[in-house]
Design a protein that fits this description.
- With about 525 residues, the protein is an all-alpha fold.
- Among the domains are: about 80 residues, no CATH class; about 180 residues, no CATH class.
- The N terminus and C terminus are likely disordered.
- The protein is built from 23 helices and no strands.
- The longest helix is centred in the N-terminal third of the chain and has 32 residues.
- InterPro entries: Fun_TF.
Length: about 525
C-alpha cells in the first residue's frame, strides 16, 4: 500500500465515499497493487475510508495467495511424469489381482481406472487454497478428478495435442469459479460412464455420479450469480462455461437442456457482434458445441461458421496442409471401389484429409508428425464439414449413411465417446439411415456395409440397439465369408479402422457374436 504524495490533488471525503460506491458497482475492475489515500487529511473516525482500506488489503492478500498457489500448481503439472493415454484393458487389470483370498476387493479394484502418479504431494492443499469455494466434500478427491480430466476426459473435446488444457482452465477459473466446477463435473461424469461400460459394481458408479450431480448444481448456482451482472454474462469466459455445460448435457443426451444453453450462447454471440468478434479459443469450443448438437439431433442442424477460425485452421494444421506424403492401406477402398466415382466431391475431400489423419494418428507409417493444438482443431473442422454436408447438400441415401458412419468413427475411435448416453441417439440415427440405404449398399458395396455395421457395433456397445447391429453384422459377414476375425479385419482396415494392441474387447465382441449364432443353430 502506497501513500499519496503532496503533488496529488486532494479528494474530499464525500466524493471519496461516492467513488467507493461506484467501485463496488463496477463489475469488471482489474486488480491493482496500490490504493491512493490522502495521509494529511485522513480522518481516523471516517468509517467508510477504513472499510475501503480493509477491503483492499483483504482482496490483495487473497489474490496474491491464489496466484502463488497457481504457480505451484503449474510447476507440479509440468513436472508430472508421462502418463498413459488409454484406459487399461480388463485383461491387464486382472493381472494385478492375483490374491484369491481378497476376491471381492479384487473384483471392485479391477473396474477402477488405474490412477496416474500423484501430481505432487501438496496438490490437494494447493487446489483447496486456490479454490476455497470447492471446499464442500466429494466422494472422491478433487485431485483424482483433475487427473482423470487431464488424462481421459479432455480427449472428448480435445483429443489431439493439447496437454496443458487443464492448467489453462484452472488459470481462468481463478476469476470464474463455474469453469473449474464444470471441469470437475465433466470428469466425474466421464469416470462414472467408464465404470458403467466396464460393468463395475453399482456402488462405484454411484459414487462418481453423485459427485457429478453435486458439482453440476454448484455450476448452475454460479451461473445464476453471473446472470445479474450483465458485464460478466456477456464475457467470453461465461460463453466458455455455458459451452462446456452444453457439451456435457449433450453427452448425457439431455436434449432440452442443450436447447436452453444454445439460446444463451446465441444471446452472448449476438451481443458481442457475431462469431468473428470472438477469440480463437472461444470459437473452438463453439465448434465442439456444434459437433455435440449434430450428434444428438436426428436431423441436420444449422451450424456456426467463422471464416476467421476456419482460415487459421487450414493455414496452420499440418495434416490439412498436406505436409505428409502418406502411402497407406487405410481408407483406400473409399477411393478405388467401383462406386467411388459417384461420391460427392466435398465428401471425397474430407475423406482424403481423414485418411491422412487416421494414418498419422494410428502410426501406420513412420513419420515426424507431432501433435499440436491446431491438429485437434483440424479434426474438429473435418467433423464440422461432415455435419455441414448433411445440412447444405442433398446427398443420396447411400452417401449419407457413409458420411454418418465416418463421423461416428471419429467420435468413437479418436474422441472416445463409446458408452456415452448420446450414443443411443447417433446410433439410432445411423440405423434409420441404414433402413433407407441397406438394399443399395448390400447390392453395390457389401464390404462397405460390413464396415458401417462394424462401426455401429463399436458405438452401440452397452446401448439399446446393439443386438440389432450385431445381428445385421453377422448376416453380412456370413454372405462375404468373413466370419473369422483375422479375415474380416483385413477388409475393415482398408476403410477407417486400425486394430490396436488394446482392442482385445473388439475381437471378443466379434467372436462372441458368431459363437452365439453357432449356439442357436445347434439348438435348432
Amino acid at each position: 500500500m502506497s501513500t499519496k504524495p503532496d503533488s496529488q490533488p486532494t479528494i474530499p471525503k464525500a466524493k471519496r465515499s461516492q467513488a467507493t460506491t461506484k467501485a463496488k458497482n463496477d463489475q469488471k475492475k482489474p486488480p491493482v497493487d496500490f490504493l491512493w489515500i490522502n495521509a494529511q487529511e485522513e480522518d481516523p473516525r471516517d468509517r467508510d475510508a477504513s472499510r475501503e482500506k480493509q477491503a483492499f488489503i483483504r482482496a490483495r492478500h487473497h489474490r496474491l495467495k491464489k496466484e502463488s498457489q497457481m504457480r505451484s500448481l503449474k510447476t507440479s503439472m509440468q513436472q508430472r511424469p508421462a502418463e498413459s493415454d488409454s484406459i487399461p484393458s480388463e485383461a491387464a487389470s486382472r493381472d494385478h489381482t492375483s490374491d484369491d483370498s481378497s476376491s471381492q476387493k479384487s473384483q471392485n479394484d479391477r473396474f477402477l481406472i488405474t490412477q496416474p502418479p500423484v501430481l505432487c504431494q501438496s496438490l490437494e492443499a494447493c487446489i483447496s487454497m486456490a479454490f476455497p469455494y470447492l471446499s464442500r466434500p466429494t466422494n472422491q478427491s478433487m485431485t483424482l478428478y483433475l487427473q482423470h480430466y487431464q488424462v481421459h476426459a479432455t480427449k472428448l473435446c480435445f483429443p489431439l495435442g493439447d496437454n496443458q488444457i487443464t492448467f489453462r482452465y484452472l488459470q481462468m477459473a481463478l476469476n470464474y469459479p463455474a469453469l473449474v466446477q464444470i471441469l470437475l463435473s465433466t470428469s466425474a461424469f466421464h469416470r462414472a460412464t467408464v465404470h458403467y461400460v466396464s460393468g463395475a459394481p453399482p456402488q462405484i458408479i454411484q459414487s462418481s455420479t453423485q459427485d457429478a450431480i453435486r458439482l453440476r448444481s454448484e455450476t448452475i448456482k454460479s451461473l445464476q450469480g453471473i446472470l445479474i451482472k450483465p458485464y460478466e454474462f456477456y464475457s467470453e469466459a461465461t460463453l466458455r462455461v455455458i459451452a462446456h455445460i452444453m457439451c456435457v448435457e449433450a453427452a448425457e443426451a439431455n436434449v432440452l437442456a442443450v436447447r436452453a444453453h444454445e439460446k444463451a450462447i446465441k444471446k452472448i454471440i449476438d451481443a458481442r457482434g457475431g462469431l468473428n468478434n470472438l477469440g480463437y479459443d472461444a470459437l473452438s469450443i463453439l465448434y465442439v458445441c456444434d459437433l455435440m448438437r449434430g450428434l444428438i439431433n436426428e436431423h441436420p442442424v444449422q451450424l456456426n461458421k467463422s471464416w476467421k477460425w476456419e482460415f487459421k485452421v487450414h493455414r496452420e494444421c499440418s495434416f490439412l496442409r498436406e505436409d505428409f506424403d502418406i502411402k497407406t492401406f487405410v481408407g483406400r477402398r473409399f477411393f478405388n471401389s467401383p462406386w467411388s466415382s459417384d461420391l460427392h466431391s466435398e465428401l471425397v475431400s474430407t475423406l482424403r484429409s481423414l485418411q491422412t489423419l487416421v494414418s498419422l494418428y494410428e502410426n501406420v507409417n513412420s513419420s515426424s508428425w507431432k501433435q499440436t493444438r491446431m491438429d485437434n482443431d483440424g479434426l474438429l473442422l473435418l467433423n464440422h464439414e461432415l455435419l455441414s454436408l448433411a445440412h447444405d447438400r442433398s446427398l443420396p441415401a447411400f452417401q449419407d449413411t457413409l458420411r454418418l458412419a465416418v463421423l461416428i468413427y471419429t467420435v468413437i475411435r479418436i474422441r472416445g465417446f463409446g458408452g456415452m448416453p448420446c450414443a443411443d441417439i447417433f446410433v439410432a440415427t445411423l440405423r434409420k439411415s441404414l433402413q433407407k440405404s441397406f438394399a443399395s449398399l448390400e447390392t453395390t458395396a457389401p464390404d462397405l456395409l460390413l464396415w458401417i455395421l462394424f462401426i455401429g457395433s463399436l458405438a452401440s456397445r452397452g446401448r439399446n440397439c446393439h443386438t440389432w447391429v450385431l445381428q445385421s453384422l453377422r448376416e453380412v459377414a456370413t454372405e462375404l465369408s468373413l466370419e473369422k476375425w483375422d479375415c474380416a479385419v483385413v477388409v475393415l482396415q482398408e476403410y477407417f479402422f486400425v486394430c490396436r494392441p488394446s482392442d482385445g474387447a473388439v475381437k471378443e465382441m466379434w467372436k462372441s457374436a458368431f459363437q452365439q449364432r453357432l449356439m442357436r443353430v445347434v439348438e435348432e
